[in-house]
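Limitations
The structure tokens in this dataset are predictions for the assembled complex, not deposited experimental models. Users should treat interface geometry with appropriate caution, especially where small molecules or nucleic acid strands are included. An illustrative entry is reproduced here so readers can see what is and is not provided.
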Amino acid sequence: MLDIIGKRFWFFLISGGVILISIISLVTFGLKYGIEFSSGSMMTVNFEQEVGQAELEQGLANLGYTNAIIQRTGAGDFLIRTRELTGEDKTVLQDGLTAKYGRLTEAEFYSVSPMVAEETAQNAAIAVAVAAIGILLYVTWAFHRMPKPFHYGTCAIIALIHDALIAVGVFSILGGILDWEINLMFITGVLAVIGYSVNNTVVVFDRIRENLRMGVSPDFEVVVNNSLVETLGRSLNTSLTTLFVVLALLFFVGATILNFAVVLLIGVIAGTFSSVCIAPPLLVVWEKGEWGRFVQRLPLLAAKAKGR
Amino acid sequence: MARRNMLTLIVIVVLFAFAVCALVFPMFGRGEMRLGLDLQGGIHMVYKADLSQIEPGEEANIMDGVVAVLNNRINPLGVTEPVIQKQGQDRILVELPGVSITDKEKERLSRVALLKFGELAADDEEARWENERGRWKPATAVIDGQEKELTSAYFKENTYVDRDNLGRIELIFEWDEEGSKLSEEITGRLIKQPLGIFEGDESLRGEDGRPIAPIVQSVIIDRGVITGLSYNEADSISKQLNAGRLPVPLEILYDQTVSPILGADFIDMSVRAGVIGIILVMLFMIIYYRLPGVLATLALIFYGTLVLALFKLIPVTLTLAGLGGFILSVGMAVDANVLIFERMKEEFRTGRALGSAIEAGFNRAWTAIRDSNVTTFIVCGILYWLGSSIVASAPVMGFALTLFIGVAVSMFTAIVVTRTLLRLFVGTPLAQRTSLFSVYIGRK
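Predicted assembly:
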């Protein structure tokens, strides 16, 4: 039978590495907040004539918008982000651009005042916190009949934090390189991912609970591994079907919900990995009191990896 | 047992037929899917009223007044289903689906007084406006010991557009009592001098693009005429003037404006994404699970139709994020089926007969299905709260609602529809061929 639990330290190493990169990126790049959280204005415009990005940047700087962020989103389509514009600011800006680059059509305009941005950021933070607490309570309840409900709950939460950290970390990297921003859809995506991730973990734990009750083996490690292998088909297939639709969203809708689709993509992959390779092995490590052993083995593993 | 299955099947078929009808024909007065602003274009704005000068206790009345005036100002724009609502203490939500109005028209909605009059400022005086005709300061006069600016706030609400003898467009207005006094005083002082007309911080410009600033020929007491505007402009201003004046200034807190063309693109793209995603999921299910996969596919078609019908009937306002939630729920919807089929295969391998393997599969998978969906429901609930507590609510609420409905219906379809279809298959000769279930007995 496939031995997943036996390779647990490798999985921890992989996850540890990815999380380390995420944290380093978060510390160096931080996160870029969209106007929903930081206030400002954003417009999507289309120029009839050919306009270069650098050219447009220069033009905006000449109009006094030196800090404007410009993204090309298609042939002649640009997304321009500026400080909060009043109606008159906007007219002056668009007239200025028209004078320089010819006719433009505005497809979308979005403006958020500091007051609203602050409220949104605050409530989004509350939502994330409440979601974490709600899921924690639920997981504790779902496993309250287990021998060690606290172990199960904690491992599920670690898996959840793992997924969220990776999603945020990747966005921090994308923010540093491509100016991607954290917006409301990102938060929505992260919460959806958290729900999804716990969902997968719960299915695996559910099977462990059942196999424990049936007394499959006296060895906890064997029970967990059996449960994992038995649910592996389900875990992978569900992830695959979800990936299909996420990829369809990513490739065929893109643009406005790009953030959302990418978060889901990362989340589904990380969530599947964590529910198979992180949460159940953690249970085993905890049960066997191996935390110390893992730390001791680290240099050994590193040496082994080098030797290859 | 068989009879009960047939009965369930009939109920399912009737429900399906009902859902299809609901989608195709208008039902319960719902002719079309309700689309959010991002899909059909339009405007979503939140204003904050400045109540600082208002006496305590009067706020609610003032806000009602603001809503009434906004209603009057929005009506002439021809929006089919405008939403103009008070939100909290001092906010007003305005949603104008499907419209495309110019920035100028948008600005006019929230101005206290549309037009302001100005006189040329002396070189050492501070100017409020500047244009090619000079530097301007507000035209003021002292009435009853108070200095007041001359603005369209003193117009009677009966302005209209006409043509003079030469066919030029005229916007004709009458001053109210206080306006007459102001105008008499000011125009008396400004004879042979220009009177500038401004909208907010900008000059009111005529059809020729030049600022409108007529030379005062005589004292104007009761009625006046503004010439030089294009017909459309004059008509629009006149309608807005007649809508009344706002009791307090409004500030824009939030503004989302989407052109209807962009919205149409989004619909096309999401439909394509949805169709392709669903087809991929169906192909996968059929290839991997064979006969049960085919049944799951049927259940999925039923699922999609039912969910869309619910969206239309409830009605759920569909946004791009909402469609995303629906498409995502399709991927998750098969999860319950996957859980059941995997379980069924296991039971099959232990040597159970097909019928009992199906029952055991469903029964054993149930706790996992229930437990695992609870977290999604928790998240949906929280997202819905988040959406209802913030101004930029549409995408978050749309997603939460569609995902919730999607997952709830998917539990129903997996447990009722797929099970009934499978049970009906047990009795047929097809069921004897275990390869159709992609299970090879004896192989483990």
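Some entries come with short summary sentences. For this one: The longest helix of chain A spans residues 220-252.
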